[in-house]
Design goal:
mainly alpha, 16 helices, 0% strand
Protein backbone atom coordinates (compact mmCIF):
# COMPACT_ATOMS: atom_id res chain seq x y z
CA UNK A 1 0.00 0.00 0.00
CA UNK A 2 2.82 2.42 0.81
CA UNK A 3 3.92 2.33 -2.83
CA UNK A 4 0.70 4.12 -3.74
CA UNK A 5 1.34 7.09 -1.43
CA UNK A 6 2.91 10.08 -3.19
CA UNK A 7 6.24 11.55 -2.14
CA UNK A 8 5.71 15.29 -1.62
CA UNK A 9 9.09 16.86 -2.26
CA UNK A 10 9.79 20.37 -3.60
CA UNK A 11 9.36 19.42 -7.26
CA UNK A 12 6.03 17.77 -6.49
CA UNK A 13 4.71 20.85 -4.70
CA UNK A 14 5.86 23.14 -7.49
CA UNK A 15 3.99 20.89 -9.94
CA UNK A 16 0.89 21.10 -7.76
CA UNK A 17 1.01 24.89 -7.47
CA UNK A 18 1.77 25.53 -11.13
CA UNK A 19 -1.28 23.49 -12.12
CA UNK A 20 -3.25 25.41 -9.48
CA UNK A 21 -2.62 28.70 -11.28
CA UNK A 22 -4.20 27.31 -14.44
CA UNK A 23 -7.01 25.80 -12.37
CA UNK A 24 -7.67 29.24 -10.88
CA UNK A 25 -8.31 30.60 -14.36
CA UNK A 26 -10.48 27.67 -15.43
CA UNK A 27 -12.62 27.70 -12.28
CA UNK A 28 -13.10 31.46 -12.38
CA UNK A 29 -13.59 31.73 -16.13
CA UNK A 30 -17.17 30.47 -16.27
CA UNK A 31 -18.30 33.12 -13.81
CA UNK A 32 -16.88 35.89 -16.01
CA UNK A 33 -18.80 35.08 -19.19
CA UNK A 34 -22.07 36.71 -18.19
CA UNK A 35 -20.19 39.91 -17.33
CA UNK A 36 -18.14 39.75 -20.50
CA UNK A 37 -21.38 39.42 -22.46
CA UNK A 38 -22.57 42.68 -20.93
CA UNK A 39 -19.22 44.47 -21.34
CA UNK A 40 -18.94 43.64 -25.04
CA UNK A 41 -22.69 43.31 -25.80
CA UNK A 42 -22.47 39.72 -27.04
CA UNK A 43 -25.02 36.94 -27.57
CA UNK A 44 -24.56 33.52 -25.97
CA UNK A 45 -23.43 32.15 -29.32
CA UNK A 46 -20.77 34.81 -29.80
CA UNK A 47 -19.47 34.64 -26.23
CA UNK A 48 -19.21 30.88 -26.77
CA UNK A 49 -16.43 31.59 -29.26
CA UNK A 50 -14.25 31.79 -26.15
CA UNK A 51 -14.78 28.08 -25.63
CA UNK A 52 -13.61 27.52 -29.21
CA UNK A 53 -10.57 29.66 -28.41
CA UNK A 54 -9.94 27.33 -25.47
CA UNK A 55 -10.14 24.44 -27.89
CA UNK A 56 -7.65 26.04 -30.27
CA UNK A 57 -5.22 26.63 -27.42
CA UNK A 58 -5.46 23.09 -26.06
CA UNK A 59 -5.26 21.41 -29.45
CA UNK A 60 -2.26 23.54 -30.38
CA UNK A 61 -0.56 22.47 -27.17
CA UNK A 62 -1.31 18.84 -27.90
CA UNK A 63 0.13 19.06 -31.40
CA UNK A 64 3.24 20.92 -30.27
CA UNK A 65 4.08 19.05 -27.07
CA UNK A 66 6.33 16.40 -28.60
CA UNK A 67 8.39 18.89 -30.60
CA UNK A 68 8.69 21.30 -27.66
CA UNK A 69 9.83 18.61 -25.23
CA UNK A 70 12.35 17.24 -27.73
CA UNK A 71 13.80 20.71 -28.26
CA UNK A 72 13.71 22.14 -24.74
CA UNK A 73 12.97 19.29 -22.35
CA UNK A 74 9.92 19.02 -20.11
CA UNK A 75 11.38 21.38 -17.49
CA UNK A 76 11.94 24.36 -19.79
CA UNK A 77 8.57 23.73 -21.41
CA UNK A 78 6.95 24.16 -18.00
CA UNK A 79 8.82 27.45 -17.44
CA UNK A 80 7.85 28.90 -20.82
CA UNK A 81 4.28 27.77 -20.20
CA UNK A 82 4.12 29.86 -17.03
CA UNK A 83 5.16 32.97 -18.95
CA UNK A 84 2.60 32.27 -21.68
CA UNK A 85 -0.12 31.67 -19.07
CA UNK A 86 0.49 35.06 -17.43
CA UNK A 87 0.52 36.77 -20.84
CA UNK A 88 -2.75 35.16 -21.88
CA UNK A 89 -4.52 36.15 -18.66
CA UNK A 90 -3.47 39.77 -19.15
CA UNK A 91 -4.74 39.74 -22.75
CA UNK A 92 -8.08 38.32 -21.62
CA UNK A 93 -8.64 40.63 -18.67
CA UNK A 94 -7.25 43.86 -20.15
CA UNK A 95 -8.58 43.43 -23.69
CA UNK A 96 -11.51 45.68 -24.55
CA UNK A 97 -12.56 43.93 -27.74
CA UNK A 98 -13.46 40.39 -28.78
CA UNK A 99 -10.23 39.63 -30.69
CA UNK A 100 -8.08 40.45 -27.66
CA UNK A 101 -10.14 38.37 -25.25
CA UNK A 102 -10.18 35.44 -27.67
CA UNK A 103 -6.39 35.59 -28.11
CA UNK A 104 -5.99 35.78 -24.34
CA UNK A 105 -8.10 32.66 -23.78
CA UNK A 106 -6.23 30.76 -26.52
CA UNK A 107 -2.84 31.68 -25.04
CA UNK A 108 -3.96 30.80 -21.51
CA UNK A 109 -5.38 27.41 -22.37
CA UNK A 110 -2.43 26.53 -24.61
CA UNK A 111 -0.10 27.26 -21.71
CA UNK A 112 -2.36 25.51 -19.21
CA UNK A 113 -2.59 22.39 -21.35
CA UNK A 114 1.20 22.24 -21.59
CA UNK A 115 1.37 22.62 -17.82
CA UNK A 116 -1.13 19.81 -17.22
CA UNK A 117 0.63 17.51 -19.68
CA UNK A 118 4.08 18.33 -18.32
CA UNK A 119 3.23 18.02 -14.64
CA UNK A 120 1.22 14.81 -15.14
CA UNK A 121 4.01 13.22 -17.18
CA UNK A 122 6.59 14.28 -14.61
CA UNK A 123 4.53 12.86 -11.73
CA UNK A 124 3.94 9.63 -13.67
CA UNK A 125 7.74 9.33 -14.01
CA UNK A 126 8.56 10.44 -10.46
CA UNK A 127 5.81 8.76 -8.43
CA UNK A 128 5.59 5.37 -10.20
CA UNK A 129 2.91 3.30 -8.39
CA UNK A 130 1.79 6.42 -6.49
CA UNK A 131 1.01 8.26 -9.74
CA UNK A 132 -2.82 7.91 -9.50
CA UNK A 133 -2.76 9.37 -5.97
CA UNK A 134 -0.24 12.08 -6.88
CA UNK A 135 -2.11 13.24 -9.99
CA UNK A 136 -5.39 13.19 -8.08
CA UNK A 137 -3.72 15.16 -5.28
CA UNK A 138 -2.39 17.70 -7.81
CA UNK A 139 -5.93 18.34 -8.99
CA UNK A 140 -7.18 18.36 -5.40
CA UNK A 141 -4.79 21.17 -4.52
CA UNK A 142 -5.72 23.03 -7.72
CA UNK A 143 -9.45 22.84 -7.02
CA UNK A 144 -9.09 23.50 -3.26
CA UNK A 145 -7.37 26.79 -3.95
CA UNK A 146 -9.22 27.39 -7.22
CA UNK A 147 -12.63 27.36 -5.54
CA UNK A 148 -11.75 30.86 -4.32
CA UNK A 149 -11.55 32.12 -7.93
CA UNK A 150 -15.32 32.30 -8.63
CA UNK A 151 -15.84 33.69 -5.14
CA UNK A 152 -13.35 36.49 -5.82
CA UNK A 153 -14.97 37.19 -9.19
CA UNK A 154 -18.41 37.43 -7.56
CA UNK A 155 -17.18 39.50 -4.62
CA UNK A 156 -15.25 41.81 -6.95
CA UNK A 157 -18.40 42.52 -8.96
CA UNK A 158 -20.48 43.01 -5.81
CA UNK A 159 -18.10 45.55 -4.23
CA UNK A 160 -17.46 47.42 -7.47
CA UNK A 161 -13.97 46.18 -8.41
CA UNK A 162 -15.27 44.30 -11.43
CA UNK A 163 -14.54 40.71 -12.44
CA UNK A 164 -11.00 41.16 -13.76
CA UNK A 165 -8.86 41.31 -10.57
CA UNK A 166 -10.21 37.94 -9.43
CA UNK A 167 -8.75 36.31 -12.55
CA UNK A 168 -5.49 38.27 -12.60
CA UNK A 169 -4.43 36.63 -9.33
CA UNK A 170 -3.37 33.57 -11.37
CA UNK A 171 -0.96 35.60 -13.53
CA UNK A 172 0.87 36.86 -10.45
CA UNK A 173 0.88 33.40 -8.85
CA UNK A 174 2.37 31.52 -11.81
CA UNK A 175 5.25 33.99 -12.12
CA UNK A 176 6.02 33.59 -8.42
CA UNK A 177 6.12 29.81 -8.96
CA UNK A 178 8.91 30.25 -11.50
CA UNK A 179 10.92 32.31 -9.03
CA UNK A 180 10.55 29.50 -6.48
CA UNK A 181 11.42 26.81 -9.06
CA UNK A 182 14.86 28.33 -9.61
CA UNK A 183 17.26 27.76 -12.48
CA UNK A 184 17.48 23.96 -12.53
CA UNK A 185 14.55 22.98 -14.73
CA UNK A 186 16.24 19.71 -15.78
CA UNK A 187 14.85 18.08 -12.64
CA UNK A 188 11.47 17.98 -14.44
CA UNK A 189 12.88 16.41 -17.59
CA UNK A 190 15.95 17.31 -19.72
CA UNK A 191 16.12 17.50 -23.49
CA UNK A 192 15.85 14.09 -25.14
CA UNK A 193 19.10 14.59 -27.07
CA UNK A 194 20.95 14.98 -23.79
CA UNK A 195 19.44 11.92 -22.12
CA UNK A 196 18.41 9.35 -24.71
CA UNK A 197 18.31 6.39 -22.32
CA UNK A 198 16.37 8.10 -19.53
CA UNK A 199 12.95 6.77 -18.61
CA UNK A 200 11.85 10.40 -18.76
CA UNK A 201 11.24 9.70 -22.47
CA UNK A 202 8.69 7.70 -24.44
CA UNK A 203 9.01 4.22 -25.89
CA UNK A 204 8.69 4.01 -29.69
CA UNK A 205 5.70 2.46 -31.43
CA UNK A 206 1.93 2.87 -31.73
CA UNK A 207 -0.50 3.27 -28.85
CA UNK A 208 -2.46 0.19 -27.71
CA UNK A 209 -6.16 0.24 -28.62
CA UNK A 210 -7.03 0.55 -24.92
CA UNK A 211 -5.41 4.00 -24.91
CA UNK A 212 -7.91 5.27 -27.47
CA UNK A 213 -10.87 4.00 -25.44
CA UNK A 214 -9.46 5.84 -22.40
CA UNK A 215 -8.91 8.87 -24.65
CA UNK A 216 -12.57 8.81 -25.76
CA UNK A 217 -13.86 8.73 -22.19
CA UNK A 218 -11.74 11.76 -21.37
CA UNK A 219 -13.25 13.59 -24.35
CA UNK A 220 -16.75 12.93 -22.99
CA UNK A 221 -15.90 13.94 -19.42
CA UNK A 222 -14.09 17.10 -20.60
CA UNK A 223 -17.28 18.02 -22.47
CA UNK A 224 -19.20 17.63 -19.21
CA UNK A 225 -16.72 19.55 -17.05
CA UNK A 226 -16.40 22.58 -19.31
CA UNK A 227 -20.13 22.71 -20.04
CA UNK A 228 -20.76 22.85 -16.29
CA UNK A 229 -18.02 25.34 -15.46
CA UNK A 230 -18.87 27.73 -18.30
CA UNK A 231 -22.68 27.71 -18.27
CA UNK A 232 -23.83 26.66 -14.78
CA UNK A 233 -23.85 30.30 -13.49
CA UNK A 234 -26.33 31.30 -16.17
CA UNK A 235 -28.61 28.37 -15.30
CA UNK A 236 -28.48 29.40 -11.65
CA UNK A 237 -29.56 32.94 -12.52
CA UNK A 238 -32.21 32.13 -15.14
CA UNK A 239 -33.60 28.92 -13.65
CA UNK A 240 -32.70 29.17 -9.97
CA UNK A 241 -33.39 32.87 -9.42
CA UNK A 242 -29.93 33.88 -8.16
CA UNK A 243 -28.45 37.29 -8.92
CA UNK A 244 -25.58 37.37 -11.41
CA UNK A 245 -23.02 38.14 -8.73
CA UNK A 246 -24.35 35.34 -6.51
CA UNK A 247 -24.48 32.87 -9.39
CA UNK A 248 -20.86 33.60 -10.29
CA UNK A 249 -19.78 33.08 -6.68
CA UNK A 250 -22.00 29.99 -6.39
CA UNK A 251 -19.81 28.24 -8.94
CA UNK A 252 -17.67 27.61 -5.87
CA UNK A 253 -20.14 24.85 -4.91
CA UNK A 254 -19.18 22.68 -7.84
CA UNK A 255 -15.50 23.59 -7.47
CA UNK A 256 -15.71 22.89 -3.75
CA UNK A 257 -17.24 19.49 -4.46
CA UNK A 258 -14.38 18.81 -6.88
CA UNK A 259 -11.85 19.85 -4.25
CA UNK A 260 -13.28 17.60 -1.55
CA UNK A 261 -13.67 14.72 -3.99
CA UNK A 262 -10.06 14.96 -5.13
CA UNK A 263 -8.75 15.09 -1.58
CA UNK A 264 -10.80 12.03 -0.68
CA UNK A 265 -9.98 10.31 -3.97
CA UNK A 266 -6.25 10.69 -3.43
CA UNK A 267 -6.62 8.90 -0.07
CA UNK A 268 -8.99 6.20 -1.32
CA UNK A 269 -6.57 5.07 -4.02
CA UNK A 270 -4.41 3.49 -1.31
CA UNK A 271 -7.34 1.27 -0.28
CA UNK A 272 -9.53 0.78 -3.36
CA UNK A 273 -8.99 0.03 -7.03
CA UNK A 274 -8.83 3.27 -9.02
CA UNK A 275 -11.06 1.82 -11.77
CA UNK A 276 -13.80 1.12 -9.23
CA UNK A 277 -13.49 4.68 -7.90
CA UNK A 278 -13.52 6.10 -11.43
CA UNK A 279 -16.75 4.38 -12.43
CA UNK A 280 -18.35 5.41 -9.14
CA UNK A 281 -17.37 9.03 -9.77
CA UNK A 282 -18.95 8.97 -13.23
CA UNK A 283 -22.22 7.63 -11.81
CA UNK A 284 -22.23 10.13 -8.92
CA UNK A 285 -21.83 13.09 -11.28
CA UNK A 286 -24.72 11.80 -13.40
CA UNK A 287 -27.01 11.62 -10.35
CA UNK A 288 -25.96 15.06 -9.15
CA UNK A 289 -26.45 16.60 -12.57
CA UNK A 290 -30.01 15.34 -12.81
CA UNK A 291 -30.84 17.14 -9.55
CA UNK A 292 -29.35 20.38 -10.88
CA UNK A 293 -30.89 20.10 -14.34
CA UNK A 294 -34.43 19.22 -13.36
CA UNK A 295 -34.87 21.57 -10.36
CA UNK A 296 -35.95 25.21 -10.19
CA UNK A 297 -35.05 25.62 -6.52
CA UNK A 298 -31.84 27.55 -5.99
CA UNK A 299 -31.00 25.56 -2.84
CA UNK A 300 -31.58 22.17 -4.48
CA UNK A 301 -29.54 23.25 -7.48
CA UNK A 302 -26.61 24.30 -5.28
CA UNK A 303 -26.66 21.03 -3.35
CA UNK A 304 -26.87 19.11 -6.63
CA UNK A 305 -23.95 21.08 -8.05
CA UNK A 306 -21.88 20.10 -5.03
CA UNK A 307 -22.72 16.44 -5.63
CA UNK A 308 -21.92 16.84 -9.32
CA UNK A 309 -18.60 18.37 -8.37
CA UNK A 310 -17.82 15.44 -6.09
CA UNK A 311 -18.31 13.10 -9.02
CA UNK A 312 -16.50 15.32 -11.53
CA UNK A 313 -13.53 15.56 -9.16
CA UNK A 314 -12.02 12.30 -10.38
CA UNK A 315 -12.99 12.57 -14.05
CA UNK A 316 -9.87 14.37 -15.24
CA UNK A 317 -7.12 13.24 -12.82
CA UNK A 318 -8.11 9.56 -12.91
CA UNK A 319 -9.05 9.71 -16.57
CA UNK A 320 -5.77 11.35 -17.54
CA UNK A 321 -3.65 9.02 -15.41
CA UNK A 322 -5.44 5.87 -16.62
CA UNK A 323 -4.95 6.97 -20.23
CA UNK A 324 -1.22 7.51 -19.61
CA UNK A 325 -1.15 4.06 -18.01
CA UNK A 326 -2.83 2.64 -21.11
CA UNK A 327 -0.32 4.38 -23.40
CA UNK A 328 2.19 1.54 -23.08
CA UNK A 329 5.12 3.64 -21.85
CA UNK A 330 4.42 6.72 -24.00
CA UNK A 331 3.28 9.36 -21.44
CA UNK A 332 4.52 12.49 -23.24
CA UNK A 333 3.01 11.55 -26.61
CA UNK A 334 -0.07 10.28 -24.81
CA UNK A 335 -0.41 13.58 -22.97
CA UNK A 336 -0.32 15.40 -26.29
CA UNK A 337 -3.08 13.23 -27.74
CA UNK A 338 -5.15 13.74 -24.59
CA UNK A 339 -4.69 17.49 -24.83
CA UNK A 340 -5.96 17.44 -28.41
CA UNK A 341 -9.03 15.42 -27.45
CA UNK A 342 -9.91 17.34 -24.31
CA UNK A 343 -9.13 20.62 -26.03
CA UNK A 344 -11.54 19.78 -28.82
CA UNK A 345 -14.20 18.78 -26.30
CA UNK A 346 -13.69 21.82 -24.08
CA UNK A 347 -14.38 24.08 -27.04
CA UNK A 348 -17.01 22.29 -29.07
CA UNK A 349 -19.31 21.12 -26.25
CA UNK A 350 -19.73 24.52 -24.51
CA UNK A 351 -20.03 26.26 -27.88
CA UNK A 352 -22.71 23.82 -29.02
CA UNK A 353 -24.48 24.27 -25.70
CA UNK A 354 -24.41 28.07 -25.96
CA UNK A 355 -25.56 28.11 -29.57
CA UNK A 356 -28.32 25.61 -28.80
CA UNK A 357 -29.37 27.67 -25.77
CA UNK A 358 -30.03 30.67 -28.05
CA UNK A 359 -32.49 28.45 -29.93
CA UNK A 360 -34.22 26.29 -27.30
CA UNK A 361 -33.14 27.72 -23.94
CA UNK A 362 -30.32 26.86 -21.59
CA UNK A 363 -32.14 24.01 -19.83
CA UNK A 364 -32.92 22.11 -23.04
CA UNK A 365 -29.40 22.66 -24.35
CA UNK A 366 -27.96 20.93 -21.28
CA UNK A 367 -29.10 17.53 -22.65
CA UNK A 368 -25.52 17.32 -23.95
CA UNK A 369 -24.25 16.55 -20.45
CA UNK A 370 -26.23 13.37 -19.58
CA UNK A 371 -25.57 11.94 -23.05
CA UNK A 372 -21.81 12.34 -22.53
CA UNK A 373 -21.95 10.83 -19.04
CA UNK A 374 -23.90 7.76 -20.14
CA UNK A 375 -21.39 7.10 -22.93
CA UNK A 376 -18.45 7.55 -20.52
CA UNK A 377 -19.96 5.18 -17.94
CA UNK A 378 -20.59 2.54 -20.61
CA UNK A 379 -17.06 2.62 -22.04
CA UNK A 380 -15.39 2.70 -18.59
CA UNK A 381 -17.37 -0.40 -17.61
CA UNK A 382 -16.54 -2.31 -20.79
CA UNK A 383 -12.91 -1.20 -21.24
CA UNK A 384 -11.19 -0.96 -17.80
CA UNK A 385 -7.48 -0.10 -17.49
CA UNK A 386 -5.76 -2.33 -14.96
CA UNK A 387 -3.07 -0.98 -12.64
CA UNK A 388 0.35 -2.38 -13.53
CA UNK A 389 1.77 -4.32 -10.55
CA UNK A 390 4.86 -2.94 -8.82
CA UNK A 391 8.05 -4.13 -10.45
CA UNK A 392 6.58 -4.37 -13.97
Amino acid sequence: MTLRRPVRDKTTWISYLQATCFGWFIFGFGGTLQFLREDLDLSRTVVSFHSLAMSVGSVTAGLATGAIIKRTGRGLMLRYSSILLATGILFFTLGQSLPFTLIGVAFTTCAGSLIIQGTASYLAYQQKQAAPAAISELHAVASSIGLLAPVMVGVGVTVGWGWRPGIQVAAVGVLLIEVIRGKNTDLYGPRAVEDEVSDHHDLPGAFPSLFWWAWLILVFTASVEFSMLLWAPEVLSTQGGLTKGASAAALATIVGGMSVGRLIGARLTSKFDSEFLYRGALILSFVGFLGFWLSSSGLVMLVSLTITGLGMSLHFPFGFERALRASGGRPDRGGGKLSIGTGFASGVAPFALGALADQIGIQGAYVIVPICLVLAITIASLRPVKLVPAGN
